[in-house]
Amino acid sequence: MTTFIINILFCISITIVCYFIGLKFYHKYKKAWLNPLYTASFLLILLLIAFPFEGVNYQEGSFIFNQLLQLAVVSLAVPLFKQWSFLKKNFRKICFGVICGTALGVITVLAMSHMFHLQEQLLASLIPRSVTLPIALTISSDLGGLTSTTVFFVVISALISLIIGPKLLQQFGIKSRSAKGLAMGTSAQMLGANRSLLWGEEEGAMGSIAMTTSAIFLSVLVPFIAYIS
Amino acid sequence: MKFIWFPQLLIIFGFLILGYSTATIFHLPLPGSVVGMLLLFVSLITGIMKLEWIEKVSSFQLKHLTLLFIPPIAGLFISSGFIEILKWNILIILIISSIFCLLGTAFAVEWFEKRRDMK
């Protein structure tokens, strides 16, 4: 029992230390690619691989962060509430755009998985790939996917959207501010919402609304997907 | 300072529990945390909850949301199954579906705005 508690405490502190180092770097150099998400993860992985600590099981110890993530989902109600008047004014536009985008994303995943004959478990981890992470984890485990795999898919696809998104939207001549914000928020969630804030207030607000809406929409959609496939 | 954030955290935790129980009791297809979020949102709108009661903790949580994403990523990289997961076909699926998702949303919104302007 004591080793279990020590393990948890150790995992929590090593993660937090890595995070703050990453954050410090980010604030010092202010480069987008120095996001603590990358630097801290990288540092943590290096540490864990370089020093295989005696009797430490990182996966086991980090379950506490999963619980915190659940709490963070509840907290998402606050930004949603703050933007409520803006959301209400553009309600139909937002819903229409987000539903079209999310549905198209899911359909593409379903169709291509059939093409490549993917395993069901892998497919279940792929479906929530464009939803904000805490909700994606829950959806994935509801569908019978592997949560750790989902994390990876969510992060990778957010990164892909973040890298190609702004260029792609420009190439296809998307000018509407809401369209840009919503597209980034739906596809790259937190990272996209952050990116669209660089374009301006309207895009930024749209980005974070899209993040929340697409997550809610997909978690409503999930039972139907499970029913179909 | 501590006396401010602790009750706030308890409120949010309470909503999480409430969300879980609501989802189980009514057999909702939604994850418990999402139900909790919706319940909190409705309480904020109807004025049952005041924004100040939870604002400090929730903004702190969302500000450091990145921290919570680090353990799952690190856990994945140090686990052995990692190489098996990332194959070229998965990468292609992720890239194509990201493109479709981005363009689908953007075009849908543009179309919607144009249609409204014409009216």
What is the mean predicted local confidence, pLDDT of chain A?
78
Number of helices of chain B: 6
Largest interface: A-B, 100 and 71 residues
The proportion of residues forming helix of chain A, as a percent range, comes to over 70%
Tell me what portion of residues of chain A adopts beta-strand conformation.
under 5%
Provide the low-confidence segments of chain B as ranges: none
Structure description:
The complex is a heterodimer of chains A (229) and B (119). Chain A is globular, with a radius of gyration of 19 Å. The mean pLDDT of chain A is 78. Chain A has twelve helices and no strands. In chain A, helix 1 crosses helix 2. Chain B has 119 residues and is mainly α. Chain B contains six helices and no strands. In chain B, helix 1 crosses helix 2 and helix 1 crosses helix 3. The interface between A and B is large, with 100 and 71 residues.
Which labels suit this protein?
heterodimer; A: 229 residues; mainly alpha; 2 domains; 12 helices; 0% strand; globular; B: 119 residues; 6 helices; extended
Question: Layout of helices and strands, plus pairs?
Answer:
The complex is a heterodimer of chains A (229) and B (119).
Chain A lengths: L1 H28 L6 H15 L7 H4 L1 H13 L1 H6 L1 H6 L1 H26 L3 H7 L6 H11 L3 H25 L5 H23 L1 H28 L1
Chain B lengths: L1 H24 L6 H15 L4 H13 L1 H14 L3 H4 L2 H31 L1
Helix pairs in contact in B: 1-2, 1-3
Summarize the structure.
The complex is a heterodimer of chains A (229) and B (119). Chain A has 229 residues and is mainly α.
